[in-house]
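protein under study:
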Amino acid sequence: MSEYLVQIFGENNIIGRFDTRVDIAYYNESEPDINKLKEEKVLGEAKRTKNDLFYLSMAMGVKEGKMTLDDVKEVLNDAFKSLIFDNLVSIKFVGDGTYLEFSDKYIEIRPSGTDAKTKAYGGGSDKAVLETYANIMGNYSGERTELHKKFINDKFYNSTKDEAMKYYLEFVDKDANNEPFEIPEYKF
C-alpha cells in the first residue's frame, strides 16, 4: 500500500507528502507560582503578537501594494540568514495566520488565539526542511529589521491587526447566513 501511495504521489506531482506542527510557548506552563505564571503569560502574549505582526504586516503590505513579493523575499532573506526564500511564491493572511507558499512547501505562522503561544505549520516534500523552517520562523522574536521598516512604516505596522480583521470579517460575512436564529418550539 505504501509503495502504491508513493507511486500516486509521483504520478500526480504531489509535493505535500509530509507535514509538521511546532508549538512555541512563551512562558513556563508548569510555573507553580500563580502570580509569576500570570506575569510570564502576559509577557508571552506580547512576544506572540510581535512574532505574528512581523509576518502579517508583510502579507498585508503585499495586499495593500506597500511592498512586492520580491521585497518580502529580501526582508526574509535578511532576517533569516540560515533559510532561503528565493522560491517564495506568495504570502497571504489566511484568517488565522500568515501563509507563505513556496514552490516546494508551505509554512504558516499563526498566533494561538487562547494562549501565549505561536504555532508554526508546514507541508512539503522534505520533513527535515519543514521542521527547520517552522522552528526558526516560529521562534523568531518578531524584531523589525531595518529592511522591514523600510517597507512597512510604523503607522501601517501598528494598524495591521485591525486591517487584517476587516478583511477577515468581510470574507466571513460574504457567504454567512445572517438570518436571525429563532429557537424552535419543541414538543415532547
The CA atoms of residues 52 and 111 lie 6 Å apart.
